Amino acid sequence: MNDISSGWMGQCVDYRERIELLFVRSSFGDITSYAKPVVFEMVQREPGTMLGEGPTLSLTREEGRQIMQILWDAGIRPNDGAGSTAESNSLRNHIKLAESVVDRVFKLLEQKNAAAV
Q1: What are the strands, taking DSSP E only, across 1-117?
Q2: Alpha-carbon distance 25 to 60, whole Å?
Q3: CA atoms within a 13 Å half-sphere pointing along the CA-CB vector of 85
Q4: For residue 63, which of 10, 18, 6, 4 has the smallest C-alpha distance?
């Protein structure tokens, strides 16, 4: 059977100042391939002409989503626009957690004060 899987991996480096991305494709069991770094090429461009032989990078929707998730997990957010549903849900979950922690602390303090009286 010919199983081919691919995906993006990422990590924060330099104290979260940079994010490194790596595209890996595994196939045929032990064989793994990966995308090499992008190389910039200087060329003389004639006015009104397009450059390049194609896009720098072409992604499927799933691969694009993977990159967005890696960037989100690294703390990267858009500069403007209304927040996403995921951002709102994440904020709500954080608030609920903070509320539950505060509630537990107050209950412990009440129990401690009641026992002291």
Answers
A1: 4-13, 18-27, 31-34
A2: 14
A3: 0
A4: 6
**Dist. CA 37–CA 90, nearest whole Å:** 33
Average pLDDT of the chain is 81
Residue range 79-108, pLDDT digits in tens: 765 566 777 788 888 899 899 999 888 888
Q: DSSP label at 81?
A: S
* CB neighbour list of residue 35: distance below 8 Å, 6 or more residues apart: 22, 23, 24
Residue 27 makes CB contacts below 8 A (sequence gap 6+) with 2, 3, 4, 5, 33
Q: Is the dihedral of CA 68, 30, 27, 5 positive or negative?
A: negative
Taking the C-alpha atoms of residue 109 and residue 103, their distance in angstroms, rounded to an integer, is 10
pTM value is 0.52
CA 14 to chain centre: 17
The torsion angle over the Cα atoms of residues 77, 78, 84 and 86, rounded to 10 degrees, is: -20
